[in-house]
Amino acid sequence: MKKYILAIDQGTTSSRVVLYDSKFKIKSIEQKEFKQYFPNDGWVEHDAQEIWRDVEHLMRRTIKKNKLRPSQIISIGITNQRETTVLWNKKTGKPIHKAIVWQDRRTADYCDKLKLKKKDKIIQKITGLVLDPYFSATKIKWILNKTSKNNKKQITDILFGTIDTWLLWKLTEGKSHLTDITNASRTMIFDSKKEEWSDELLKLFNINKSLLPEVKENAFNFGSTKLFGGNIVIGGMAGDQQAATIGQACFNAGQSKSTYGTGCFLLMNIGSKFKISTNKLLTTVAFKINGKKMFCYEGSIFVAGSAIQWLRDNMLFFKNSKETDKIYSKANKRENIIVVPALTGLGAPHWEPNTRGAIFGLTRNTSQADIIKATLDSLSFQTLDLIESMERDAKIKIREIRVDGGMISNNNFLQSLSNITQVQIIKPENIETTSLGVAYLAGLNAGLIKNVNAISKFWKKNKIAKPNTSKKIIQTEIKTWKKTVKNLISLNS
Predict the structure, then answer these.
(1) Closest CA to 120 of 282, 271, 274
(2) Neighbour-count burial of 48, counting CB atoms closer than 10 A to its CB (0-12 exposed, 13-18 middle, 19+ buried)
(3) What is the CATH number of the domain that holds 164?
(4) Bridge-based pairing state of the strands 99-100 and 158-162
(5) 340 lies in some domain
(6) What are the pLDDT digits (tens) for 104-115?
(7) CA atoms of 327 and 370, how far apart (whole Å)
């Protein structure tokens, strides 16, 4: 019988199940979008129950469609949208509130109060993270406060998890309440050096340790599921950006990858030492495999593919996102349009949760194509902002970036990215690097592969975009971009 690995890739707008054969070639992909909830300005929520139902359904569909026996699936890997926070009752198995998504900004005022008390320095020293609503800690506190006020009783039997933990708990029917080190490192209550939940930060946020999952390295026996007719081990877990880093084989210090999905996330491997950024980047755990832990600098752009989704669904500029590649070519290069797609605030290196998106330079001649091009170019400019911060922190010149995510099928965007950053942009043969990374982890735990060197041998490049525009032209555009963003931040402050 042929053997397979099943990867659950639970993202911000859709859930996917990818089936890999024993040589890590894709056999099938099943996908389903789910509902987004926006109850207030800057608030973003998901229904964790819906996410679980979708994942279970996609797994069943994959098994049925490929006529698989459970014994043919040697391991399951889980990768997930990070920071998104679920609290549920362990007796009923039901969430006590909708999941608060990583993009959500409802705790911005609370974060500002903590900054006035100089708590941001303590948080960065312990976790490597910038104090921001982005991370799980303030979301946990908000849900607990709201639930206790509504019930007017002490909350009992509550568990916390990011989406990986929630799915694992459901798959194992409540037997495994675990997370992996990469997801733990994004909660803002985990000491990434000591590898333990921080008592100091738990006290600061008034979070009881009993809520929290146990933390494990990325390739580990997290438990097994019996929901699909047999016993299947869950052998790998990682947050989506770290999973993509593994899928892109960025195992050496200085190697960088950037994912262009709902948001954009640039990660640079900085080696085995914990180093705090002085340029508003995050220091986070890249992975821990076979006892070896590596850290990375990360820069997060909150709105990337979701800006294209906004142009499609809200502005009705096109029906399919794939159309943007051709439309980009139709834009008038003499139109000096600048789009700052800060639809849920600005992430790194600005960290301005209250800044809102804007379009500058509109004229009677401005077309939909001009706005689409400017939106795509804005992601290249924001990537450059991250590169500059990263190079200052790491004292390493970035000469190439391995890219992945849904947006990299747009060739005009890849060329824009290379031109504006003046860096080689490398597209791999397998662009499904997030699910691939967690499939590798599941394969490691199952003994299908031995180490990260074996993973590096699987990685192959497909296309390279090199700069084809002069630095002089680009420098003028970059100055305009930086000035515009600075003015917009001032306007919203």
Answers:
(1) 282
(2) buried
(3) 3.30.420.40
(4) unpaired
(5) no
(6) 999 999 999 999
(7) 9
